[in-house]
Amino acid sequence: MEYLTQERAPIMESLEKMRATRLVPFDVPGHKHGRGNADLLEFLGQRCLEVDVNSMKPLDNLCHPVSVIRDAEILAAEAFGAAHSFFITGGTTQAVQAMILTVCKPGDKIILPRNVHRSAINALILSGAIPIYVNPQVDERLGISLGMKVEEVIAAIKNNPDAKAVLVNNPTYYGICSDIATITKVAHEHGLKVLADEAHGTHFYFNQKLPASAMSVGADMAAVSMHKSGGSLTQSSLLLTGENINAGYVHQIINLTQTTSGSYLLMASLDISRRNLALRGSEIFDNVIELVEYARDEINYLGGWYAYGKELVDGGAIYDFDVTKLSVYTRSVGLAGVEVYDILRDEYDIQLEFGDIANILAYVSVGDRVKDIERLVSALADVKRIYRKDSARLMKVEYISPIVDATPKEAFYAEKKSLPIAETVGETAAEFLMCYPPGIPILAPGERITKEILDYVKYAKRKGCQLTGPEDMTIKRLQVIKGR
Amino acid sequence: MELWFSELHTPNVRFSLKVDKQLFSEVSEFQRVDIFDSAEFGRLLVLDGRIMITERDEFIYHEMITHVPMCVNPDIKKVLLVGGGDGGSARELLKYDTIEKIDLVEIDETVVRACRKYIPQTASCLDNPRVEIFFADGLKFVRRKSDEYDLIIIDSTDPFGVGEGLFTKEFYGNCFNALKASGIMINQHENPFYNHDAAAMQRAHKRLAGSFPVVRVYQINIPTYPAGQWLFGFASKKFHPTNAVDFGRWQALNLQTNYYNPKVHVGAFMLPTYVIKKLR
Q: Disulfide engineering: B250 pairs with which of A2, A94, A341, B71, CB 3.0-4.6 Å?
């Protein structure tokens, strides 16, 4: 085998070679390098469509990688300090599902914080695993859920000695980290596997100033959204595994749901982004950190807003904080986060990552410039001047501890009835209900519907949050389990 | 030998000046800065390939961006100039003895250095003690000011590139906040003729109209700008640009101008129909 270094990009190189051979395509895709779809060609460009090709011998096959895809995966594993890496073309959702399906068989228990992404609970529906929820502490002031305290994880393990795995958000959407090193140590001592949802943590692997990555502390599997802070194309993702995971079995699991026509655009973007991060990641994220620290200082100087950072760290539920996350608390200006989110887009031409009830998140990356930061800060100054309101009218957000009546799978496949949402108090939900983003369920299948939850939903709806999940797209009705 | 400088006014329209030589060329942190000597227009300041000023016709731009607000409110004492590193706007403002202080905020030190050396016609005034130069981002500078200025003039480049932050609602809003209760702001409205520029003009105008109670647009004719036509925005908290203006008071100052006079002042606010339609 040729010696592989991080300067190489095997998938990209093989596509370049293919391009140079001017191969006549008598295979799919039918657009044939774009010739068969002039409008698409005009829109996306020749260079893009030329490499939108199907698996062929020189390009390897994502379902069974033996040459260039395998090489690219070896390089990615090396760059991330993992034993194996798998290129994923179905988003980090697919990577999260593959992790859970790998370690949980039907009826197995998995310990996880309630503020997991919907993809994790979807995986419980697929696998039939039983969730053991650890209460993620809630910051009372900011109204955001935090990380898991080590002692709570230990208690969950003690109460459920048969549990198979622990899932950790590393970090949460807001940048909050649990003590993943200690959790991993404790879990391993009790024979549990540790899975990390690192949808928002790609950059942890490439800069010393950032919180610990899952692989660096010996976690068993990690789902890494390369397309977020890593810079690859949307929907491309990485699944990393440690020494004690059977890579062959993981492959079989991935192939249960992965497409057999893996996109070379996505795979090449993973390959190129991995190379970029391996060679320049440290410098790139130094710049991002500097930009965000500057923005935080400027926003806090305005007064009213609170752009939070490392000062939140308390060694417990906020074991560490990802300083590249520019989250701003908005309630002190009398505005819900989602209101600020809407105002910034509609009035100031600034698109944020999300706004929730009390916070906004601006996603800052390698692609941002100081002058864009100046715009955001100045816009916040102006929003405060024009839209400031009395903050007393805002609802206080509290963690609503879920009452689990049934496993997600039981609830999902149970006989259901549809009720007007206001009449569902006391029933058991048979479907998801969430605000998107961040896509963390307010209700998951199998959970008891309470008045508190419906009050929250009503409030979120009024403030302009986008509610998703139920079959009824208008969110007027909700499906509940029949006969409970 | 013939040497021509060309600026693309649109991808299909080229504006060319015969130049004698290039006097200055430097790529700064923000943009490329060039100064040429031309046969017809004297020295040119060019930023990222676009003519900012020429010695021959800069008086039109600088007189109209300054004397209009000064005539509307002759009691203006403190002025913020955003951009304007060439010094032309400051030169006109300094004709008023009543102005006490001009804060000039230029993002690019290179522009000031180049103009000081090669275009003293506009830049020599920058040594005047009433002018204080800050090399800073205008958007950031103005964010920290409140109820401080009588007049803000945005003498910037185009809404594409370095100056793009100066065509935004957040900037206009922060300017509003930096102005006193009788404050006036003058800004760029680009040329209305070519579609690409006109779209930028419409957007800026919409954002401005939402930020100030009084917003009007006026027009000048200037040979070296696209289509020879240029618009300024007049935004103010209190004063109307032509109603109840005391032109006699301005005339009594007996200032020397070559383009501006009270009749041109009033006439500049009379806009062609197609411009009015675009502003709607």
A: B71
Same domain, A162 and A57: yes
Query: Which ipTM value was assigned to this complex?
Result: 0.84
Q: Which of A301, A370, A371 to mutate to test the interface with B (most CBs of B within 10 A)?
A: A371
Question: Which residue of B29, B137, B142, B143 to mutate against A (max A Cβ within 10 Å)?
Answer: B143
Considering all CA atoms of chain A, what is the largest pairwise distance in Å, rounded to the nearest integer? 68
The 10s digit of each residue's pLDDT in B202-260 is 888 888 998 999 999 999 999 999 999 999 999 999 999 999 999 999 999 999 999 99
pLDDT at A392 over 70: no
Is the pLDDT assigned to residue A437 strictly greater than 60? no
Q: What domains can you pick out in chain B, each with its CATH number?
A: 4-54 (2.30.140.10), 58-279 (3.40.50.150)
B196 three-class SS: helix
pLDDT averaged over every residue in chain A: 92
DSSP collapsed to 3 states, A404-440:
ECCCHHHHHHCCEEEEEHHHCCCCEECCCEEEECCCC
Could you give the count of Cα atoms lying within 13 Å of B69 in the half-sphere of its Cβ?
36
Q: Which of A410, A355, A424, A423 is nearest to A383 (CA)?
A: A355
Option in B137, B143, B164 nearest A381 (CB): B143
Residues of chain B contacting A298 with CB distance shorter than 8 Å: 140
Contact B44, B86 (CB under 8 A): no
A3 within some domain? no
pLDDT tier at A199, thresholds 50, 70, 90: very high
Q: Which of A231, A254, A278 is the last residue of a domain?
A: A278
A→B contacts (Cβ < 8 Å), by residue, are: 298, 302, 347-349, 370-371, 374-375, 377-379, 381-382, 385-386
Which token pair is A283? 């410098």
Each residue of B106-139: pLDDT tens digit? Answer: 999 999 999 999 999 999 999 999 999 999 999 9
